């Protein structure tokens, strides 16, 4: 029996529809969720991402502002814009697209965003709230991973989840979210001595290491749920995950494809965060 393929596009579309319905209800009270996206410089991938975020706002009836700034923008100028957006009532969420040009201190910029508008969940106080378990805006990709697991019909509580990767934007927050869902969590990384032994005990595997096709079926317990956060481009142009999808398809109980798994969830969770921030802002 092959694995259940977890359709990220379909789940993402379903959540977007839910967000759209909620946004329409808010609109009846005169509230329109507003997202400001700030792009500094000309990074081609960032331009595409920012365009997708703008489109998602239009699709869901959100107000959006996209600030496209030149690569020579100073940190001072960027901080001044964030200060303005922090105090702008029509804006509920602020996202500064990363990476920033090298002359700008990324941490100083993230720290300047109001925590209640931090729809990326990157502010240290948002990270602290995530660890403590307070109700706060959750980082988008990790929140998307949890939604995919839940909406594929998997009970998380009591399961052994193994995260492969310890980045601040995926590995660590995913571990914290799974812990909140009462999983037993192991975090593995490049220095883990016996990765295969640990991963193959997992009921849930989340791979986020940025190495194409690195995880084959020898790492996977039969029936395990496999969530692949990796997006890697091979020399021939093909997009693949960190998990060798075809190799794991017969072993896993459920698995996300790349593309079409975690990828579509990130912007959807951003929209959900913006909706949540708008609701909170209006009590
Ligand atoms: N660049 C790539 N992914 C992201 C993201 O999720 N948020 C921000 N701000 N920048 C990114």
TrEMBL record:
CDD domains: NAD_bind_m-THF_DH_Cyclohyd. Pathway: One-carbon metabolism; tetrahydrofolate interconversion. Keywords: Amino-acid biosynthesis, Histidine biosynthesis, Hydrolase, Methionine biosynthesis, Multifunctional enzyme, NADP, One-carbon metabolism, Oxidoreductase, Purine biosynthesis. GO terms for cellular component: cytosol. Signal peptide: none annotated. It catalyses: (6R)-5,10-methylene-5,6,7,8-tetrahydrofolate + NADP(+) = (6R)-5,10-methenyltetrahydrofolate + NADPH; (6R)-5,10-methenyltetrahydrofolate + H2O = (6R)-10-formyltetrahydrofolate + H(+). NADP(+) binds at residues 165-167, 231. Residues 6-120 form the Tetrahydrofolate dehydrogenase/cyclohydrolase catalytic domain. InterPro entries: Aminoacid_DH-like_N_sf, NAD(P)-bd_dom_sf, THF_DH/CycHdrlase, THF_DH/CycHdrlase_cat_dom, THF_DH/CycHdrlase_CS, THF_DH/CycHdrlase_NAD-bd_dom. The gene is folD. It holds the Pfam family THF_DHG_CYH. Homodimer. Catalyzes the oxidation of 5,10-methylenetetrahydrofolate to 5,10-methenyltetrahydrofolate and then the hydrolysis of 5,10-methenyltetrahydrofolate to 10-formyltetrahydrofolate. The keyword rRNA-binding does not apply. One of its GO terms (molecular function) is methenyltetrahydrofolate cyclohydrolase activity. Residues 139-281 form the Tetrahydrofolate dehydrogenase/cyclohydrolase NAD(P)-binding domain. Belongs to the tetrahydrofolate dehydrogenase/cyclohydrolase family. It comes from the Bacteria. SUPFAM superfamilies: Aminoacid dehydrogenase-like, N-terminal domain (SSF53223), NAD(P)-binding Rossmann-fold domains (SSF51735). One of its GO terms (biological process) is methionine biosynthetic process. This is Bifunctional protein FolD. Its EC number is 1.5.1.5, 3.5.4.9. Gene3D superfamilies: Leucine Dehydrogenase, chain A, domain 1 (3.40.50.10860), NAD(P)-binding Rossmann-like Domain (3.40.50.720).
